[in-house]
Amino acid sequence: MKTILKILVFFLLVLPSFSMAETKEIPFTLEDRDRIIRTEQKVEAINQRFESIDQRFESIDKRFEAMNKRFDQLFNFLWAIVGIFTSMMVSVFGFAFWDRKLSLAPMKRDNLKTLNALREFAEHQPKLREILKNAGLM
Q: 4 vs 77, which has greater pLDDT?
C-alpha cells in the first residue's frame, strides 16, 4: 500500500511538468507568415478558376435552353406538316370513293335493267332460264 501511495504521489508531482511541456508556445516566424500569404493567393486563384468554370457552365446551360426551344419549334412544325399531309390524304381518298360510287351508280342501274329484261325473256325460253338458275340470277 505504501508503494502504491508513493507511486501516486510521484505521478501527482510529475504530471504538472508534463502538462507545461504541452503548453509551450511555438514562435510565429516570417516564413510562416509568407507561407500563409502564398496559400491565400493560391486559394484565391483556385476560387477565380471555379468562378470562370461556373460562368462557362451557365453559358452552356443557356445554349442548351436555346437548342431545346429550337427543337420544340421544329417538332411543332413537323406536327403541322403531318396534319396537313393527313388531311390531304383523307380528302383524296374520300374524293376517290365518292367519285367511284357516283360513276358506278348508272352502270348498276343499266345492269339491273338488263337483268330484268333477261328474266322476262327467260319466262319464254327454257334454256335461258336454266342458264340464269345455274348462275344464281333467277
A: 77
